[in-house]
Amino acid sequence: MFRRLLYTCLCLVCLLAVSSACQKATPPIPVPEAGEGAITGQVLGLSGRWKEGPFTIYAAPYVGGEDGEGFYVLEPALHPHDELKANGYFQLNDVTPGQYVLVVGPTPEEAIRVVDDQQKPRVFTITAGQVLEAGKIQLEP
Fold it and tell me: Which of 32, 45, 59, 104 has the smallest number of CB atoms closer than 10 Å to its CB?
């Protein structure tokens, strides 16, 4: 009787520990703070570009027109960034509303721009309180 009770208690403790670990492993996407936005997505085509990671994605403010003609300046210490997760997934939080170009690389100096189907820099527009789902994105050749 005592062994069965002990066994049952141990099983319950193990189940609670596994359940808690699973909940921590997959946190929900946080809602941006008031006045901020977020960008989520997956970067494709990382293999063979650089010798090793980890890889970081940066949101660099973009100034220009809708035709892709413009410029951006990346300041890694100031601009939103996130280390890519398994399979290239990312989430950039606390993004101030505006237009951004995303760049990816092992360092800011080696970063490559995210482009559209015409190989022009892809410009992302963020609004306050929005979580923009960028989907699967590609890097310039």
Answer: 45
The beta-strand segments (E) located in the chain are: 37-43, 56-64, 70-72, 81-83, 89-95, 98-105, 112-115, 123-126, 131-139
- In which region does residue 16 sit, left (phi positive, over 0), alpha (psi from -120 to 50) or beta (all else)? alpha
SS3 content of the chain, % helix, strand, coil (to 5): 20, 40, 40
Q: What is the pLDDT of residue 39?
A: 96
Say if residue 26's pLDDT is above 80: no
Q: What is the arithmetic mean of pLDDT over 57-80?
A: 86
CB contact at 8 A, 139 and 41: no
- Say if pTM beats, i.e. exceeds, 0.70: yes
User: Which domains does the chain carry?
Assistant: 37-139 (2.60.40.1120)
